[in-house]
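Intended use. Records such as the EAL domain-containing protein entry shown here are meant for training and evaluating sequence-to-structure methods. They are not intended to support clinical decisions.
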Amino acid sequence: MNNSVENRFFAIVCGALLVFVAPLFVLFLFLSSERADKEIRDHISVLLVANAQALAKPLWDLDEDSVTQISATVVSQGAIVKVEVRDQSGQLDVSQSTIPRSFDGKLVQVSRAIIYNTVDGPKNLGSISVYYPALGLFSGLKQEEVVFISIFIFAVLTVFGTALIGNRFFVIQPLMRLTAAIEATRQLGSRHHVDWQSNDEMGRLAHSFNEMQTKLESEEKELKLAHRRATDIYNLTPAMLFSLDEEDRITAVSDYWLLATGYHRAAVIGRNFADLVTPATRDKFVKRRQAESGMTVTVKFVCLDGRTMDVLIMESEAGAGAQDHLSLSVMTDVTELKASEDRNHRQAITDHLTGLLNRQGFEAVLDNKIAAADAAGQELACLFVDLDRFKWINDNMGHAAGDTALVELVERLKTHLAPSDEAARLGGDEFAILLPAKDAENRAKVMCEQIASIFETPFAPDMHLSASVGIAIYPHHAETAAELLQKSDMAMYAKKRDGKNGAQLFDNAMLDRARSRAEIEANIEAGLVDNWFEAFLQPIVTLNGRGIAGFEALMRLNHPQKGLMPPAEIISVAEETAKIVRVGNVIMEKAIANLAKISRISGMQDTYLAINFSPLQFEPALPARLAAIVGRHGIRPERIVVEITEAVLMHDNPQIRLIVTELRRFGCRIALDDFGTGYSSLSYLNRFPVDIIKIDQSFTRAINDGDDDVRQKSRMLIEGITTLSHKMNCTVIAEGIETEEECRTLHQMGLDYGQGYLFHRPQHAATLIDELTASQSAVARAS
């Protein structure tokens, strides 16, 4: 209560009295004291004048009795309490006093000289001194002044008391009631009102307070109702809701959350939410919540019974800007969705036929395997496996048989894989295998031997397969995943070119070949765009008279800087990149145009043109395209010979067979090139409408071989082929004739035509036309 309003008011009033009233009262007392002191001094002055004259004669006469009597008279006057009379000569000293012994106050002295008039004039005989008590502030007050002061003090006290009483009744009392209402509201929680009514400020204050309490009470009821409704919604919503404070402690959970997780509310309130998340995903949750105010994260939640479920947590700040940074989060069970996503992901990275990784999955695993190999201080071998002749199985035995073979292959392969190995089907009949090991090269060689053993047993009756395997080692051959896969692929293609069915370890020379191949690809594309391709012609002659019967069109690429480039590599790369179709169309167009020019030379009207066709060129549009070209140049169809190799026939593709039949029906003749170098050549003569058989030049060179056994067998083969061909009404042409002896021997064996450097080399059409024209002119002049 020391700081109460009443005490402060009392202190203010007292302070006002001390500051304003007390100084005035003191001033009044001081003036009264001064006035009384002046009156006493004036009285004493008059008295001293009279008594100084009365003492002059007795003091002159040294009449001590008279002096004593006069002094006694003086000391009895008014306020004088002591008188001293002294002779200047020191002979007489009279003192009279009425001061009581208990007096300890201050005395005021007033003195006057005693003068006696003699014949000789005035003489100072001595002095008289009187003493009176010093007056205090109250000593000089008169009775009427004391009455006035009493009335003034009474009035001041009355005003002061009235102010205190008024303050208590009109200020303190309503404030106490207001304070009591506020305290009761604070302690009891209910809205108490002030029981005070008046028309003054306190009344208006009490009225405003009561109105505020009424309004707050109404708002509290609405808030409680809203809170109850929110709580009901929070608990009845079929979603796992929970709230966290700024320290990630659980402050509230919904009934549905408790039902789904199995926990009791008392057991989880105040608990850190991260404690309910599996250790594997706990850091993810903590870091995400620290980084984001309204996070979305998927973690694994541990239920009361130990069951783990994948949950998606979406958080929003519920107390933004407040001291209690509470959050409202929705936890959704996404276990099934996560499992579905995992299944979809596995399906996305898994080959549906074999169950191995597909290319996408393999590329993802390859990076991880390289990182694991680095961490373990190991090497990593990548085996690129491509099946040989698998397309033939699909084309001849059906895709179902091919799929069955692939599944069986994978089952056999899995028996040789270690748990740390990884296998994938990259597509079609291409596979990749990763082998981590300290000595990855030796491990790869062992695996290649095991892969070779897989193919020893047929996958079905008459279904024999083999594989070409390329090997690249990390980090010796490659530094990245893409480079490792690329170089193993390059090694596999190198094995394919070297004869298939085996393994090939990558070496840097393959990069040179790859660059060379890339350069050839660029030259092919540039040649098609800039018209660098030429159709050279090599005459085919009769062996008995060596007259020109026809011409074989041969592809040449005439590079502006490099000149004529070897055709074998260009054809090989063009077939691998499927650009052989475009190249073949250009050569076919130019060769037929050249034949039309040659046909204008006398004696060349019936010569034919043999055109080589790659298997890729046998498109449905080929017969129509060929018919349009020969029609445009006025060439009879029977003058066109379509040369096919055994590689075309080996596909046994119904579409190729249909196109060949269509060309034959159109009038073109069919020639089987390089006869005797492939598989089952004689069966093709029976199944395809072949008109011309071209014996490969390897047989031509062997007929005069120094080894008698080789020479004898070669001649027997050529004679047999010629005899069978003639019986089937087929013309036989020998390729690669370079000597007169070869020509004579072949003619004796009954062959019809020959082709080789002995007769003519392949030439540019313009040069050949000039030679033929000059030859005809020479014959004409000789005749």
